[in-house]
Design goal:
The chain is mainly alpha-helical. It has two domains: 30 residues; 42 residues. The chain has three helices and no strands. The chain starts with a helix and ends with a helix.
Length: 76
């Protein structure tokens, strides 16, 4: 009888407990916090500004040194 209880414990109870434990953890972690959302928004804004700066820099380079792209690509 103790063997049956041990087998049931290891084959049924413990796996179910582990599954239920992680299901509740995943449910609580489902969404992102407002702080994380604000950080992501700030990062997105920074990335957009950097992209605009890069485009401006490329336009300036295209006007000042028209063949800069081909010279740069030849080196790599």
């Amino acid at each position: 009888m103790p063997d049956v209880i041990g087998i049931l414990l290891f084959t049924v109870v413990i796996p179910l407990w582990i599954v239920f434990h992680y299901v509740t953890k995943w449910k609580t972690m489902k969404g992102i916090s407002p702080e994380d959302e604000a950080s992501l928004s700030d990062l997105r804004n920074s990335a957009d500004r950097l992209e605009d700066r890069l485009r401006t820099m490329e336009r300036i380079m295209d006007d000042e040194v028209p063949d800069w792209r081909s010279r740069h690509n030849d080196k790599f």
